Amino acid sequence: MAVTGLNLGEGGLPREVLEAVIRKTPFALLVGAKVAHYEPGKVELTVPINDSVKQHHGFVHGAVIGFVADSACAWAAASVAGDVVTSEYKLHLLAPAVGEAILGRGYVVKESSRQVVCRADVFALKNGTERLVGTALATVAKIKV
Length: 145
What we know:
By secondary structure, the protein is α+β, with helices and mostly antiparallel strands. The protein has helices at 15-23, 26-31, 62-81; strands spanning 34-39, 42-48, 84-93, 101-111, 115-126, 129-142. It is built from 3 helices and 6 strands; from the N terminus they run ααββαββββ. The protein is globular and about 45 Å long.
């Protein structure tokens, strides 16, 4: 999904700053989150799948899928709006997540003066293929300091 035609703000965080924030975020470090793609209005992140992120059936835990969806949305918002915090998100878990990694793609849908509406799709990567396992819609608030 392209984000062309949006009036994106000019106060976004550069990739290096976002990655520095991630390095200071304990849960992101715990699950091994990494930025895979970065451009204004679109961010992708990955989380490797290992036993520490699985639930009792061997699937990636829903909380980890939620983290990926939330982070993809928040990081996409930060790419255009600067410092942000999620105010709400709705997550739909669509299929069990198994494979080598989780990929979250976050997109800015609309930016206003106080908030950014974003969406994210979350995929399980297995043997070079993507399987859609979750989708989310989020409202992300701009932080004014």
